[in-house]
Amino acid sequence: MIKTLFLTAGLIAGKAAAAPAPKDAVAALERVAELEAMLAAKDARISDLEAQLAKLDNETMVEASSHGRELFPLYSVGTKCARRGCSIYHQINAVNPMMSLSDDRKTKGPVKALEMLALNDDLNTVIKSDDMCTRRRAMSRAAGLAAGLALAAVNAPAFAAETKTVKMGSDSGQLVFVPDEIKICAGDTVTWVNNKGGPHNVVFDEEGIPDGVSQESISMDDQLGDEGATYSKKFDVKGSYDYYCEPHRGAGMNANMVVA
How many CB atoms lie within 10 A of CB 248? Predict the structure, then answer.
């Protein structure tokens, strides 16, 4: 009997030792609840941040659509151009007094920074502008800046200028200008080459040129007789110009040029 009581008491004590204490179980449950609350708070914070980012993206898209697409947004944060996308060529002295055009070696750093802004401005102009001459000038400046030229050099009026060639007489000998219609940009030069069927010259129609342009100053005084002889003239005034070859006007040797 006594032996049985001892065995029973031992079994009860073993089970009591193996079972977790009630206080420990409560603490574990409380810790689990605390962790779940922390995770829920983190999820809520992540959702809030995602909502803020989506709002910022939407505002950025609206602003970009109102000012045109900025393919190369490199403007520094502290300038007016950072948000308005204005031309750096109109802001040379406004961005920073030190960033003016100068050959002074002391301003090499700021000038280089300004050249980067100018390159960015030109690249955006190439993408956004609908005007052929504006795009061409921007592309020429961008290429010059990318090649390491100074801003003062690429910003010179003659930097982006081109020379167009017009043949006087076709290769087969027809009495025509080839081409008989051209479009150039203000500041460009046209060179007429005596090709076939000469002599030829270039005479502008006084009624077919822009107001204020002297017909005599842009027309030839004489004629080109030798093949390969040339006549060149630079045009700065925008507008339409009608001209003809005086010896062969009756044969229909007329042409038109547009300066944009």
Answer: 20
